[in-house]
Amino acid sequence: MRQIRRGCDELLVESEFSRKLARSHESGKPLRIKLGLDPTAPDIHLGHTVVLNKMRQLQDLGHQVIFLIGDFTSMIGDPSGRNSTRPPLTPEQVQENAKTYYAQASLVLDPERTEIRYNSEWCDPLGARGMIQLASRYTVARMMERDDFTKRFKGGIPISVHEFLYPLLQGYDSVALKSDLELGGTDQKFNLLVGRELQKEYGQEPQCVLTMPLLEGTDGVEKMSKSKGNYIGISETPDSMFGKLMSISDTLMWRYFELLSFRTLDDIAALRRQIEQGMNPRDAKVALAQEIVSRFHSRKAAEDALASFEARFRHGELPEDIPEVSLGAGPMGILKVLRESGLVSSGAEGQRNVEQGGVRIDGERIEDKALQLGAGQYVIQVGKRKFAKVLLS
């Protein structure tokens, strides 16, 4: 149980799950453990792997994991955490994105022991009659207990009726799959609990729920998301992945160790003590970057990425005497950082340099002019000759 609990936010209901585990052990029948992802974008990023890693742990303990691709629900759009109605995807967009999902998830899960399902299998056949019958099993009052719906209703922000269908259909997935445990991010808690209630309605033993924390993106502020430009895709090149991991702040590095590293908690604690005793945090970050790149590429690719990263600093790209600038508290937008550190004379000049590929952070070219930098120290380069070592507290 200690291994299962590592890194998780909540396990509901833990006593029920302990009984499920004991029964599984006695009978030799593995638990059915479900994770659903909607293919709203073509790539899986490191934020997704927080829960995928937990799935792999459970898989290695002998349980049956089900990787559910929400091809039907993604056409509705998950309203979790939204303050407006999410534009639905077209069937063509969903199909295109779904093509890459399983291949990428297989970099974490063992494909030979993973059950792959699409929720269109049971959602499409429901039809209008079945959808009405499903909707009759949950109340509007219970639906309005959801925090984002409550805030939007009180704020006079429209809620479309179809958005109520999303948690119902995600819950119905658990009925169709007879899941014993469903995993998801903390923002999915309401949807996962709907699954428990619907299973009771359909005469099934309710699933337990395990939520994992949401991983902050490279900006250290918002959750990792491709739409926010703060993501690290698991199919990116080794050099790109390594460079992005090296760009995170020293503070955020520990969050990444906790949620992404396969090191033991004791190992991570020992690394913290070494840094407190004078070890350069950069060395720990290198170790993390090499571990992650090795996982999704190879050990050699990680070594080559490190050599490439260091070469950018050795081969005359960095002057010996770089001015140091302290700009106060992060997060801070990159255009403001460029302006206040004296690397550009105006926001417009900063924006132009970013758009033209002339700005690098710790040797990695950036393309997002809305990038937010969290607390940490960064070597920022504009063009070939302008450098600054920027500290954000």
- Oligomeric state of shown chains: single chain
Largest sheet: 6 strands, mixed
CATH C-level of the largest domain: Alpha Beta
CATH homologous superfamily (4th level) name of the largest domain = HUPs
Radius of gyration over all CA atoms, rounded: 23 Å
Terminal CA distance: 38 Å
Order of helices and strands: HEHEHEHEHHHHHEHEHHHHHEEHHEEEEE
Which fold name fills CATH's third level, the topology of the largest domain?
Rossmann fold
**Strand residues, percent:** 5-15%
Overall pLDDT, averaged?
88
What global shape is seen? globular
Q: How many domains?
A: 3
Give the beta-strand count. Answer: 13
Q: Give helix % range.
A: 40-55%
| Count of runs of 4 or more consecutive helical residues | 17
How would you describe this structure to a colleague?
The protein is α/β, with parallel strands linked by helices and 393 residues long. The chain folds into three domains: 1-217, Rossmann fold; 236-315, Orthogonal Bundle (Tyrosyl-Transfer RNA Synthetase); 324-392, RNA-binding S4 domain (Structural Genomics Hypothetical 15.5 Kd Protein In mrcA-pckA Intergenic Region, Chain A). The chain is 47% helix and 14% strand. The strands form three sheets. A six-stranded mixed beta sheet has the order 1-6-5-2-3-4, with helices on both faces. The chain has a five-stranded mixed beta sheet with strand order 7-13-12-9-10. It is found in: Cytoplasm. A motif ('HIGH' region) lies at residues 39-48. Homodimer. It catalyses: tRNA(Tyr) + L-tyrosine + ATP = L-tyrosyl-tRNA(Tyr) + AMP + diphosphate + H(+).
